[in-house]
Amino acid sequence: MFVISSARSEGQALGNASSDASLTRHSGADATKPDLVSQLHKQEGRHSPSELDLSIVVPAMNEEQTVDKLVNQIADVCASIQKTHEVILIDDGSTDATWQKMQELARTRKEVTAIRMRRNFGKAAALSAGFDAASGAIVFTMDADLQDDPAEIPRFLEKLDSGLDVISGWKKVRHDPWHKVLPSRVFNGLVSTLTGVKLHDHNCGFKAYRRAVLSEVDLYGERHRFVPVLADSRGFRVGEIIVQHHARQFGQSKYGVSRIAKGFLDLMSIYLVTGYGRRPLHLIGAAGLICFATGAAGMLYLTAAKVVAILTAADPIHLHKTAVFYYCITAILLGAQCFLAGLLAELIVSLVSNHRRPSDSFYSISEKVCGEGD
């Protein structure tokens, strides 16, 4: 067995979380030798990264009864369609024998890589660790509870071949309790309306991505639900297919009521990042201008009313006794603060853009053709 402690993380998408994982592969190689990944592939009879067709990333927590069955099902499907593949299993803080099962699979099956997080960092962090380790041209994500069916993989590939970059599963018929289905449908409707990415099931964990997509999308918090939205904002083409959803046979769901509130907050974050991440002044400054204009208009009205009252000898207007006067002052001050905050946000974006990574740029290039003439 070969164990790598990933204190020196190879990717920054996971941040500190990725440094708290361990990677297990079946190998007799020396950890101190250079070009470790290539040696592992060569010594274990694995396919090199350039030869792999598919990477299947499977985050799991307390799924000891299902991981081996899932790996067998994936192997059967990939063999039937003649696709080389790897399965990356991520143990996200399990308290049962899930990690032991993963270790055994990594020792006995050359296509399996097992990663263990030091604690439960959440699904987005687990997926990020898996994406960093994945080397296939197409990357799948699916849950380890056997509710996602690997037999759908050929249909995902067929849909990708139609010119799309991201395919999301749609569990049209769900075998979940109503208190999970109803909030999920409301959430999916909100996401589709606010982001413009019309998918029926943003929450579905069964998805397929071209490799280029993952190089431009960073995951943290609960962003794993919004990878299609983030990909669409970068210009990638997103689609969906209806997938079969099996009833859970083992274990229990890891999501509770708190998922609803977190999902809504994450949606607001994604809306801000995808819509105004590169132009915050357009959002914050616009709100400031509205507040400032409203307050200024109110002050002009009160000033005109006071002048008219003086000229016509009407009852005098005492501004300090008028509630509207204080509302207008508050609106003006709030508007000025928002506008200044927007300017500062623009300055920060400008400074950060000078040190950006490829995934931080505000554009995405699909192809580049250079002249080949003399």
Structure characterization notes:
By secondary structure, the chain is α/β, with parallel strands linked by helices. Helix content is 44%, strand content 13%. It contains eleven helices and nine strands. The chain has helices spanning 36-44, 67-80, 98-108, 123-133, 153-160, 178-195, 211-214, 227-233, 258-276, 280-311, 323-353, and strands spanning 2-5, 21-25, 54-60, 85-91, 112-117, 138-141, 166-170, 207-210, 238-242. Strands 1-2-5-4-3-6-8-7-9 form a nine-stranded mixed sheet, sandwiched between helices. Helix 6 runs parallel beside helix 9 (258-276) and helix 10 runs antiparallel to helix 11 (323-353). The radius of gyration is 27 Å and the shape is elongated. It starts with a strand and ends in a 21-residue tail after the last helix. Residues 1-20 and 25-45 have low confidence and may be disordered.
Give keywords:
374 residues; alpha/beta; elongated; disordered N terminus
**What level of helicity do the residues show?**
40-55%
Biggest β-sheet description: 9 strands, mixed
Order of helices and strands: EEHEHEHEHEHEHEHHEHHH
Q: Give the overall average pLDDT.
A: 80
What is the structural class? Answer: alpha/beta
Q: Major sheet: order of its strands?
A: 1-2-5-4-3-6-8-7-9
Q: Please give the count of helices.
A: 11
The poorly predicted ranges are 1-20, 25-45
- Give the percentage of residues in beta strands: 5-15%
CA-based shape: elongated
Task: Using the CA coordinates, give the radius of gyration.
Answer: 27 Å
State the end-to-end CA separation: 55 Å
DSSP summary, beta strand count = 9
